[in-house]
Sequence to fold (276 residues):
Amino acid sequence: MRVGAHVSIAGGVDNAVERQLDVGGNCGQIFTHSPQVWRDPDIDDGEAERFRAGTRERLDGPWVIHSSYLVNLCTPKDDLRAKSVDSMQKEVDAAAQLGVEYVNVHLGAHTGAGTERGLANAASALDELDVPDGVTVLVESDAGSGTKLGGDFEHLATVLEASDQDLDVCLDTAHAFAAGYDLSTATGVENAVREFDDVIGLDRLKCVHLNDSKHACGTNKDEHAHIGEGLIGEEGMRAIVNYPDLRDVPLVLETPNEDGKGFAWNIERVRELREN
Ligand SMILES: [Zn+2]
Ligand SMILES: [Zn+2]
Fold:
């Protein structure tokens, strides 16, 4: 199975390979810079080459670049939109430099413009990108707090349909649960996956952010928990990691580092839940 974690690039992006191996992962995710500020990726060619070689020789992949949290594709504000598009362009260019297949982005918040307008803004913002060959932008399912879009599978489908880019989707299990898809039982997982397939199409699902949730289904609250220890719980997690249509999808963990449990513990837990 392909399972890994969101690891740090501190000290150089090539260090992410060793960090991934240290926690027992064989694929994973990185930020190219601090996600809380507007900053450009700054990766020299030596680091990039070492990252590519390390990935080729020691991991299965894929890698995902998670874009900045400041990016808001749905925004009605011109300056924020321009900054968001510029930031995303730099992420897809960094992905090409690193040989990374996917750049993951949240749609963002419409901040009063309305759902329809917000989704149209997101699609047209994505259309402004010049995405290099070999790189695909993934729109991530959201917890749907406030005016953030992407909580409903329909939102993601609307953007995929309206955009001229070849977009695919990343399903975050904690976000989907918070947005109202009950993944805590085998039946709930079955229903959610079937709905995803009907609305979006499972062929568009390229990554699962596998996270448990500290908050109940439908609360729109986004706080990740250790695998099997949140409100999705062990039954739900077991159903997700063994669901036939999800078995080949790369799983990337964004679980907390607390209670003495980090990524290594959580990845091991996923491997234990997986049945052969
Ligand atoms: Zn995310
Ligand atoms: Zn996520």
